[in-house]
Amino acid sequence: MSRTIRVAVAGASGRMGQEVVKMVLSDPELTLVAAVDRSSRNLDAGRMVGREECGILLTNDLELTLVESKPDVMVDFTTPQSVVSNALLAIKHNVRPVIGTTGFTPEDIEELDRQCREQGIGGIIAPNFSIGAILMMKFAAQAAKYMPHVEIIEYHGDQKLDAPSGTSIKTAEMIAANRQELHQGNPKEEETIEGARGGLYSGFRIHSVRLPGVFAQQEVIFGGYGQTLKIRHDSYERAGYMPGVAIAVKKAMELTGIVYGFENFID
């Protein structure tokens, strides 16, 4: 029997990080070897998530922890401000990054891909690990071939730092790949309040809602002659992302270079 995959979790005490810790501790194919969070240390990771002590204490020095614990994979759900430097550190130490944090530029992804290939390792960057959300994106991309008039509305809690969301941007990229750029609406349209029509991407609009009490939803609305089509996905809790994260950790061991988008693993 092959050995288990050694996993480090960056941002371990965050809300998503704690779900990742629980998932790793529950999966017989994975072994938690490190839990890193800048604001925490010396707390047992198992106790932190309401489980029995697992012997892995939280640390706050990512590079030192990677050197000492020698993980195969680092799962990162931190912040847009730290995720690129975290990923570069992981790759430097031959650790495969699996990243759910958003905020990457195309240039960031290219650089991480280059460095992974130089090291002969792979990694995954996914704006969304929810299998239902990936299906929503795929269905939207398919619909765009036949109904090119489209707008996206995404909803998140008011503490989300980036707008539009990484999921909506990835959805927009997939839609744009399946339709010619089309500037929708009346050419004489005028915004009387700036931003009322949302952000413009490849001729269509993305609208970001930020409210307390909201978790994560996205709706893609297509309009045609005498009809509309709405494709919507609703996430209600963070545990819903964990089956996808587990798949990504295992797939990362087979890759060379960075794969952007979890949809690449859903047929």
Question: Descriptors for this entry?
Answer:
NAD binding; alpha/beta; 12 strands; 5-stranded mixed sheet; 7-stranded parallel sheet; 267 residues; 2 domains; single chain; Rossmann fold
In a few lines, what is going on in this structure?
The protein is built from 8 helices and 12 strands.
Give the name of the CATH architecture of the largest domain: 3-Layer(aba) Sandwich
Biggest pleated-sheet summary = 7 strands, parallel
Record field, number of beta strands:
12
Main β-sheet, spatial strand arrangement: 3-2-1-4-5-6-12
How do the helices and strands follow one another from N- to C-terminus?
EHEHEHEHEHEHEHEEEEHE
Family: Belongs to the DapB family.
Binding site for NADP(+): 38
Active site: 156 (proton donor/acceptor), 160 (proton donor)
Binding site for (S)-2,3,4,5-tetrahydrodipicolinate: 166-167
Q: What this model shows, in words?
A:
(S)-2,3,4,5-tetrahydrodipicolinate binds at residues 166-167. It comes from Paenibacillus aurantius. NADP(+) binds at residue 38. The protein has 267 residues and is α/β, with parallel strands linked by helices. It folds into two domains: 5-125 and 238-265, Rossmann fold (3-Layer(aba) Sandwich), CATH 3.40.50.720; 131-235, Dihydrodipicolinate Reductase, domain 2 (2-Layer Sandwich). It contains eight helices and twelve strands. The protein has helices at 15-26, 45-48, 62-69, 83-92, 106-119, 131-143, 166-176, 242-252, and strands at residues 5-10, 30-36, 58-59, 73-76, 96-99, 122-125, 149-156, 199-201, 204-210, 216-224, 227-235, 257-260. The strands form two sheets. The protein has a seven-stranded parallel beta sheet with strand order 3-2-1-4-5-6-12, with helices on both faces. Helix 1 packs across helix 8, helix 4 (83-92) packs parallel to helix 5 (106-119) and helix 6 (131-143) runs parallel beside helix 7 (166-176). The model has no long low-confidence stretch (mean pLDDT 93).
